[in-house]
């Protein structure tokens, strides 16, 4: 089972990516910094470490602040999770309702 937390926490770990700009920019909390990749199939994520599990109930994200319409760029993007770093499962998707500023997606995965 997962330990019970009484408050929301930010998952910490080692940023990973497909090799674009520094993946740590995606998680630094500074809205003017950002992760960018030239690959059409790109990814950025956090490796929380071997033998660790996290129960994710919500993902908060902030689209690139200079985009006039965020949905033009990231609608259809997915959030995935893996327990082994090889097999990934979709846990959330960015829909047309994405807006400038903070967005959140509730995660209901068993």
Low-confidence segments: none
Count of individual domains: 2
Instruction: Figure out the total of helices.
Output: 1
**Strands of the biggest beta sheet: in what spatial order?**
1-2
User: Which class of secondary structure composition applies to the elements?
Assistant: mainly beta
Q: What's the order of the H and E elements?
A: EEEHEEE
Strand content: 15-25%
Oligomer classification: single chain
Q: Mean pLDDT across all residues, rounded? A: 83
Radius of gyration: 14 Å
How many DSSP E strands?
A: 6
Coarse shape: globular
Instruction: Give the helix level as a range of percent.
Output: under 10%
End-to-end gap:
12 Å
Largest sheet: 2 strands, antiparallel
Keywords:
110 residues, mainly beta, 2 domains, two-stranded antiparallel sheet, 1 helix, globular
């Amino acid at each position: 089972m997962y330990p019970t937390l009484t408050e929301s926490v930010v998952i910490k770990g080692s940023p990973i990516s497909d090799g674009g700009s520094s993946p740590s920019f995606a998680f630094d909390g500074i809205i003017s910094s950002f992760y960018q990749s030239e690959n059409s199939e790109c990814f950025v994520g956090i490796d929380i470490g071997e033998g660790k599990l996290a129960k994710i109930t919500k993902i908060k994200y902030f689209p690139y602040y200079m985009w006039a319409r965020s949905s033009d760029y990231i609608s259809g993007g997915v959030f995935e999770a893996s327990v082994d770093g090889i097999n990934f499962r979709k846990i959330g998707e960015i829909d047309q309702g994405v807006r400038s500023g903070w967005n959140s997606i509730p995660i209901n995965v068993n």
